[in-house]
Amino acid sequence: MLRRSIAFLLAVFLLFSSLVFGFTICIDPGHQEKGDPTHEQIAPGSTETKARVSTGTRGVKTGIPEYVFTLEFSFLLRDRLVQEGFDVIMTRERHDINISNIERAKIANEANADLAIRIHADYSANSEVKGFMLLIPSPDSIHTAPIYSESRRAAEKIMASLLNISGISSLGIRQRSDMTGFNWSKVPVLIFEAGFMSNPEEDVLLASQDYREKLVEALVSGISDYFLSR
Ligand SMILES: [Zn+2]
Questions:
Q1: Could you report the per-residue pLDDT of 35-70, keeping only the tens digit for each?
Q2: Cys-Cys link to 143, which of 53, 69, 148, 183 (CB 3.0-4.6 A)?
Q3: What's the gap in Å between 16 CA and the centre of ligand 1?
Q4: How far, in Å, is the centroid of ligand 1 from the Cα of 57?
Q5: What separation in Å is there between the alpha carbon of 225 and the centre of ligand 1?
Q6: Which residues contact 54 (CB under 8 A, 6 or more apart)?
């Protein structure tokens, strides 16, 4: 009986690991040590431009820079996705680098990633504001309409999974047409804004290994649900 149970569990494990095997996830740890204020086109063919990459925010209580949080968090996420059988590429693995939002999008495009996930933390002038949110490309822009529906489906699976974390605050899924990293993306993409570093409570939470691991587990489970339901 025990041997049959083990064989069954092994079969289930192999089935699940093979189903996500071959899917490529591109993780983009938001920002870098020094921002680059020189401009780049917000979308292909656009006359509108934006800074190549901004510096990001900083924890109001912990003082942790956003670019440090995003990279540490991305390493945790990468390791767990690899364990699940995904192929993972990262747009950066160090702080001292200069890659713009267009270049980050192109890394995912060139790898033909099945999903790009960009990691950020948020800032608000109102220190009361807290909660995570998921940003996805808009269906109303010619640049992002082709990747809208798959990006939304992935975001909904991830949202459902994150909401299982007890006590977590959610600000929902929001559509954006003003993000360079979305407009240049040819693959489904979303931004995980993990929480507000301008809210003292959430800043401390985001610095804790325990909370980071909970978020990562929820992301991994949401991402797996998305691929298993394709
Ligand atoms: Zn950011």
A1: 999 999 999 999 999 999 998 999 999 999 999 999
A2: 183
A3: 33
A4: 7
A5: 26
A6: 31, 35
